[in-house]
Amino acid sequence: MKIQAVRGMQDLLPRKKKIFRFIEDKVRDVLDSYGYREIGIPVLESTDLFCRLVGEATDIVEKEMYTFDDRNGDSLTLRPEGTAGVVRMGQERGLLFNQTQRLWYAGPMFRHERPQKGRYRQFEQIGVECFGMAGPEIDAELLFITYRIWQVLGFADGVKLELNSIGSKACRLEYRNKLVSYLSRYRDALDQDSLRRLDSNPLRILDTKDSATRDLLKDAPVVTDFLDRESRKHFDGLKSLLDQRQVPYNINGSIVRGLDYYNNTVFEWVSNDLGSQGTICGGGRYDGLVEQVGGRATPGVGFAIGLDRLAMLLEDHCETSSECDIYVASLGKIGKEKSLLLAEDLRVGLKNIKVIVDCTEAKLKSQMKKANADGARLAIIIGEEEATKGEVIVKHLETGLQSQVSFNSVTDYLAKALPEG
Ligand code: HAM
């Protein structure tokens, strides 16, 4: 029996991984320019953390977590998301009280969802979490950051910001009651999932995919009509900042997010080009979360970007540079040895140069074919004769021109032959 990858777990082949790295580099540059600091959070946390912070009645906790007992009998869970871990870490390591923090992390998350295009059981996120700032300015900063990332990656025109405010706990409770009493009148028409959520988590009904339930929701009460003064002020402040910076957005009352910890601002960035799994980033404010891990009330807000989905958007457009500037081909035992040693000198002597050494016994012709296939600009050829004479042949692959160069002057020769960049 062949052993295969576990369902929903992706193998990232070199081309895909390269796109991931391209994205990560760009996102990192943007985050650096806003003064955000990178942190690392464990892949494993105690199960209790997610049950309490993400919420017992969410899809994630109800049915998607990879949970197991370790050898000590402790219940652990592979992180389904990063915010809970960051809040736990911030509280445990004393990063939160009386301080402001702008933090980010990257890595794999795990959810036992039904796999499909753009939805995996192991997927990559880049997440950002900010603490200690209660006003709408930091919410706006996060949306500026995300918008900037899409611009830098070149697809800002193809994504939409769906924005909503779900207000404070008190106004949400009032809204929840109104929504439940409205939907209760149509119990018979609700789909199974929504009917179940009517008692456990009615706000989640708002993002149902069922068309009959969606029709019912057209006349349902809207959360933004229930915002109290403070929540409304916060939301207006955020919208005004987005307007001033001309970040386009759409107020969407059905954005409530699938995790329980949010209050006030919630948002999702959705791409038109990804089909049903088009949300490339989601986030919002979570002012009550730090208290839930035993800390003092600390405002928090953040988002996470789904890297797998961004990579899908860039797949066909992403021009990634070649792996190879110089390909070193050789023949015979001494030629092989010399080529490996010369390549070390080149990497030390020339800045940002990518050198691949042919370590096969292949004929020179197929080594040169490989040089072309790898996108090299130059090939260095060391045959037995050159090796004994202390020389190499440098061949310009585009023009076919070649020169004999002595071993000691190869680095200087190449420094001139290879234009910057
Ligand atoms: P989330 O909406 O659950 O939020 O996930 C954020 C993003 O991760 C999604 O928009 C999507 O791009 C990607 N994603 C989620 N599930 C999958 C999957 N199964 N396969 C591929 N990509 C996926 C959070 O995780 C929150 N922690 C975000 C946050 C941070 N809120 C405040 N701070």
Can you give a write-up of this model?
The structure is a single chain. By secondary structure, the protein is an alpha+beta fold. It is built from 15 helices and 16 strands. Strands 1-5-6-11-10-9-7-8 form an eight-stranded mixed sheet. Strands 13-12-14-15-16 form a five-stranded mixed sheet, with helices on both faces. Strands 2-4-3 form a three-stranded antiparallel sheet. Strand 15 and strand 16 form a beta hairpin. Helix 1 (14-33) crosses helix 5, helix 1 packs across helix 11 and helix 5 (136-153) packs parallel to helix 9. The longest helix is centred in the N-terminal third of the chain and has 20 residues, at 14-33. The protein is elongated. The model has no long low-confidence stretch (mean pLDDT 95). It binds histidyl-adenosine monophosphate.
What's the arrangement of secondary structure elements?
Elements (H helix, E strand, L loop, with lengths): L13 H20 L3 E2 L5 E3 H8 L4 H6 L2 E3 L5 E4 L4 H10 L8 E10 L11 E10 L4 H18 L5 E7 L3 H16 L7 H9 L10 H7 L11 H16 L5 E2 L11 E9 L7 E7 L3 H4 L7 E7 H8 L11 E5 L1 H18 L5 E3 L6 H10 L4 E5 L1 H6 L1 E6 L5 E5 L3 H8 L4
Parallel strand pairs: 1-5, 7-8, 12-13, 12-14
Antiparallel strand pairs: 2-4, 3-4, 5-6, 6-11, 7-9, 9-10, 10-11, 14-15, 15-16
Bound molecules: histidyl-adenosine monophosphate (HAM).
